[in-house]
Amino acid sequence: MFKKAVLFISAFLGVSIATIAGGYNLQFKINGIPDKTVKLAYYFADKQYLKDTTVAQNGAFVFKGDEALPGGIYIVILPNNQYFEIMIDKDQDFRMETDTAAYVGNMKVIGSEDNKLFYDYLNFVNPKQKESKELRDKLDQVRKELDSLKALNKKTDSTELNTIEAKLKSIDEEVKKYKIKYMNEHPENILGKVFRTSKEVEIPEAPLLPNGKKDSLFAFKYYKSHFFDDIDFSDARLLRTPVFYSKIRQYLDKLTVQHPDSLVQAADFLSEKARANAEVFKFIVQNITSHYEVEATKVVGLDAIFVHMVNKYYKTGQATWVDSTVMAKIMKRAKTLEPLLLGKVAPNLVLPDVYTQQKFALHDVKADYTIAYFWDPTCGHCKKVTPKLYEWWLENREKKKVAVYGVNTTVNQQEIFDYLKEKPMDWIKVWDPYNQSKFRDLYDIYKSPEMYLLDKDKKIISKHIGVEDLDPLIKMWEKQQSQSAVKIKPEEPE
């Protein structure tokens, strides 16, 4: 990792990208750096990507290209593993000079008003941050001293504490006023847009409810409903800053209930806002889709968001940036997962018993709960899980009315016989050595063991679970069912 010389994000306490016409010619003179490779990178979402490289000679180097760079915040990475940030927008022929003694303080900018304004801001805010840090360290020390005195029942004086807090508040107000003035004077400047994007929602006092009490939910609801008021979804430059993506993730991860229905609604809300710009729309749709495809492997149920995004935006031809090969893979994945979403009726299987060849249908199993269990008697993990599941089933098959539909995934029947001879089990034992039923595709079986928990109607309660999950899942399910049960009062006779 390279070290920080000027980290823009601290001043705020992948990729196909569009370009503007023309080329770029960025000239630098950094006194004190060695004659080695220098890199130009840029922010995109939560990562940084390399754009160009060159070699410094006597501290001088140039980044040059025939196509203009898309606007955003870029990073100049020096041979000494330090870096500083620059603003890229319409002015892409400029010169910047400084030295290793003080990258910010000694920076001179020629030909770029955006970067001159940026470094004016950094020269203003950096001393404020330093002073603020010293005050906060002092504040922590004073608080500890006061706590020690209180613990000894000694008299305390909060004068110094109040003085420090007042100074910190004053610094915060100064920085806030600077940003407001900047935003008003330079509303279309990248830094102005970043200030506006990173601005916190100011929440008014909560109104009174009819009972005279304040609405305890008002602050959250107001904050969420106004969260994007100052964020310009039509400005693709924000994609190449550290702030836009963090706002998207905050909205999805912190302000949205982590339930598939709520997340689908939030995903559509963001996608519709992003239609203001084709590049932003592409980023939002692509990022949400890929994010929840990955998250679905960690959190059960989140595959519903992936499936929804594919059906709504990819299947309908709106994801114009995807080639036919990738599109086919995405569509196939969504097609596999859709029948396996929580709440869906599990695909039926009609498979023969490993001994008698008598066929058993999964949907014919009579039980309040059915566990569809896919396992291989030679699999090391299966050897640990299967006895635990069998023991759990023996304890719960009557009191919880649980059945196990055990599907052996091996192609070697003798392996099954050998295992069952040593550890007999009297649950349903079926197999399909040649996958004639397509059970591997139907249940997305690419590893073993795999376990699905189904209700009495064979709807999927949960999946990709372990034996230790069964009791809490059934308890939670029964609680949800009792809460959702609606008692309808008979109509009064006329």
Explain this structure to me?
- The chain is an alpha+beta fold.
- It folds into four domains: about 110 residues, Immunoglobulin-like, CATH 2.60.40; about 60 residues, no CATH class; about 120 residues; about 130 residues, 3-Layer(aba) Sandwich (Glutaredoxin).
- About 40% of the residues lie in helices and about 15% in strands.
- The chain is built from 13 helices and 15 strands.
- The longest helix is centred in the first third of the chain and has 39 residues.
- The N terminus and C terminus are likely disordered.
Q: Could you spell the SSE succession in H and E letters?
A: EEEEEEEEHHHHHHHHHEEEHEHEHEEH
The helicity comes to 40-55%
Largest sheet descriptor: 5 strands, mixed
Shape: globular
Task: Count the domains.
Answer: 4
What is the average of the pLDDT values? Answer: 92
Distance between the termini: 79 Å
Secondary-structure map:
Blueprint: E1 24-31, E2 37-44, E3 47-55, E4 60-65, E5 72-77, E6 83-88, E7 93-99, E8 108-110, H1 113-151, H2 159-185, H3 190-198, H4 218-225, H5 244-253, H6 260-274, H7 278-295, H8 303-314, H9 324-337, E9 350-352, E10 359-361, E11 369-375, H10 380-396, E12 402-408, H11 413-422, E13 428-431, H12 439-442, E14 450-454, E15 460-463, H13 467-484
Parallel strand pairs: 1-7, 11-12, 12-13
Antiparallel strand pairs: 1-4, 2-3, 2-5, 5-6, 7-8, 9-10, 11-14, 14-15
Helix pairs in contact: 1-2, 2-3, 6-7, 6-8, 7-8, 8-9
